[in-house]
Amino acid sequence: MVSNHNTINNIDNNIKCTLHPNKDIVFFCLDCKLIPCCIQCTSSKGEHHGHKTDPLESTSNILSLMNNFKNDIYQKVIERIEINETILQESNDKYNEIQSQFDINNNSLKKEIKKIHDIISIIELDIKKQLETTFENNTLINTIITSSINNDNQILSTIINNNNENENDRTTTIEKLNEIIKFNDQQIYDNGEDFIIDRDTIKIIKQYQQSLIVLNNNNNINNSNKLNENDNQIIHFHNQIIDDIKNNLKSIYFLNNCRFIIEIDENNNKFFKWDNLKFYVYIEGNSFKFKENEGTAFKNNCNILSKLKNQLPSTVMLLDGFNQKLTPGILPDGVESLYLGDIKQELIIGSIPNTVIHVSLLDGFNQILTPCILPDSIKSLYLGDIKQELMIGSIPNTVIHISLLDRFNQKLTPGILPYCVKSLYLGDIKQELIIGSIPDTVTHVSLKDEFNQKLTPGILPDSIKLLDLGDIKQELIIGSIPNTVTHISLLDRFNQKLTPGILPDSIKLLDLCDIKQELMIGSIPNTVIHVSLKDGFNQKLTPGILPDGVKSLYLGDIKQELIIGSIPNTVTLVSLKDGFNQKLTPGILPDSVEWLYLGDINQEIMIGSIPNTVTRVSLKDEFNQKLTPGILPDSIKLLDLGDIKQELIIGSIPNTVTRVSLKDGFNQKLTPCILPDSVKLLHLGDIKQELMIGSIPNTVTHISLLDRFNQKLTPGILPDSVEWLYLGDIKQEIMIGSIPNTVTRVTLKDGFNQKLTPGILPDSIKLLDLGDIKQELIIGSIPNTVTLVSLKDGFNQKLTPGILPDSVKLLYLGDIKQELMIGSIPNTVTLVSLEDGFNQILTPGILPESVGLLYLGDIKQELIIGSIPNTVTSVSLKDGFNQKLTPRILPESVGLLYLGDIKQELIIGSIPNTVTNVSLEDRFNQKLTPGILPEGVESLYLGDIKQELMIGSIPNTVTHVSLEDGFNQKLTPGILPDSVESLDLGDIKQELIIGSIPNTVKSVTLEDGFNQKLTPGILPDGVESLNLGDIKQELIIGSIPNTVKEVNVSTSFKHQIEPYVSKNVKIIK
């Protein structure tokens, strides 16, 4: 019965309307997908009022409902359940995250508030201590006064009390004394009556003594003065400051309900700031305009990327909840920086375009990074608290910079960070580092504030050269920092003790910011040569803190006073940066300083502040000290001046200065005599005050007008003493007379952009250097007096015939850009030097037949037969020459050949038979197989050549050999052929043996520096003439053979010669 009753109830309940539980379902709404309705649903206030309906019993409608339920609605119900479960899981995950953050917030709150409590407690204790100290002083004063007065009063009170008790007796005694005093009557004594001294009288006499002692002791004055020492200290509170602190305490925190703080710009666009960038939040259909240099962020309800392919900026952020599938192409190829939050769709290969070079995965990012998800284009990767485990290959091998941000919580097993990473930044990461976590390709590591992992030896690999340390939390130990680190920066708040040995001996450069632990002697190793103390540095520099190895010292706004000895005597360069605020009393800068840079320092400089050892001073922009005579000492030779703020006066610059450089922005008047007559070299940048005749003294011989120089050069501005003139991209037009007739050399640098009409360059010029000048040369631009022209790399003007005048004898050509033609080089040129990078084809006739001497560097075009004219007699192939010397490239006119470190192999025939003199310079590195040097060679000069000589390397026609300083080949018998008659030996490096020098040699010269032992037999019996320079080994008996007839001794020879030669030898000194 119960079961039947429940069934009936269920039927009754199922027939009821869900929206109106008291009404039965009686209709199907034909307008709303056959949704069942009750009477109230179709009433005037019902949801289906006015809709078409059918009765519930309609068979066709029920069948349609059943089919729709089966085929559509039921599947949607399942999907809805799945969606709800997903949302529920996300909700729970988010709640767990919120709860975790809640716990973190509470812990952080306790920690930070405790800091405030601790500070207030320390302040309270400090005030109490001050109050107690003063009160104790006052108590001591009171005790001293009380004790002194009580002691005196005790004595005096006894006297008073005793007198009162014996008043009658005392009065009698006083009366008798008054009587004697008043009448001066000696009768009492004359009558022989003695004064009766009784016990009371003795007592009075004693009290009299006591009274005088007390009255004479000045205790009352001392006590009165002591009263003034009382300090009735009253504590006052600065109520305004207290109110400010209260208000500030309310501002010490803010509750951030989302990762980003949304702001509104002037156009009502929403944006937030992240990673020093501004991101605008994209809102569809809101006439949104992408900003070229700003980022764009897309929210979770955005499904618009595919429509915006060609509009996206280069920086894109996908925010938490972003739910669009990133199929390849959705993010277009223009994107370069990509920031990803907790996006909801799985990434696939191609999701991130190959143009992206920077990726930031923000806290909560929860996608698996299988290999190739991050493309090979990425160079920089930032990782926050990502949720999926990294695997080997997750990070591509192209990434060179990685930053692991606070809360990063992935294990860094070896190989996770690939072996291509060069720089690594680590924040408060949560997993312990192990040896191998950091690959040995990393050269720069930055440990940020709150980094909290132990640095046991080996964690930081030996590849590291640069190390930045912030407020790290784990103690450093010896070995934490590897011995390969050469540059360390200890940043603000660094709070670890630097006991000796913590910083290894490998360190050369040290930057110190506002570190919190006191430095001690030995904290900085003796290997450090460069120290930079940044703004806020607040440690005492007692002598010895900076070790004697320091050579250069940079000082910002340091907070502790310098004393004599703070800067060691080894420092040669000091730079005082903007904001430096310590007094420079004489002796602070030691006498070792030679070079001094001064920025906008805040303390006045006095005579003696700069030691007399300083030879170069650079006064930077904003320097604001008066340069009264004597401030800059007479030791200074070189002076650089930027945009200094105080006026120069005569005497500001000492008469010892020979070179002055006025930098861009220099804004002081140069009235005559401001620059002293000692100045020889002057460099002028974009100075702001007009030059006048006399601004530049008549002693200046070299002037360089740098890029942006913008003053008129009317005749006379440059004095007649100028001989060498450098001109950069100056802004004022040059006129005839701008350059005085005394100038013999002009260098026009890259960017020079003035027309060189005839007469601009005066006839006095002999040497002309031309860089990448911008105005076309015309015939007459270069005067007929010029004998040497050097066209530097980048020179880009056509050299039509006549541009280079017939006066030119010497021509140097670098990587010029315009093609040479026949006639470009005049027939008067006798020497041509083609420098490294020269890239013009030398077709026959380009080099005229007047050329006799030719120098070739690393030229880029192949030489052909005829490139070098038959008039050339001397050729020098310099280091780097890299062209094949096939036979006949060098013409038969060549008699002298100089070979440096040429790169192409020589073959038989490379050197023509007409060559009589060959010089193989240092670094020559070609094999000299027999026949390479032809039999026409008579004189051979050998420097520090790199290939071993063999018998036959030197042909039998050679009569003179000179082995220059550095020659380092063994001279086994036969290397020098029997044709050699004259031999010069410099500082050769291999030992000579008997037979090294053939018996045919008649004349030997031992040059300065010769350092080989001359044991008997080294110089053979055939030698007749011997020339001796400053040889380093002492001669012994037998060093000089008996065949020698004449010895020429130079003034540099430091030994006796007579004991080692026979008497008939002619000695010429």
Automatic annotation (TrEMBL):
One of its GO terms (molecular function) is zinc ion binding. CDD domains: Bbox2_TRIM23_C-IX_rpt2. Residues 13-56 form the B box-type domain. InterPro entries: FNIP, FNIP_repeat, Znf_B-box. It comes from the Eukaryota. It holds the Pfam family FNIP. This is B box-type domain-containing protein.
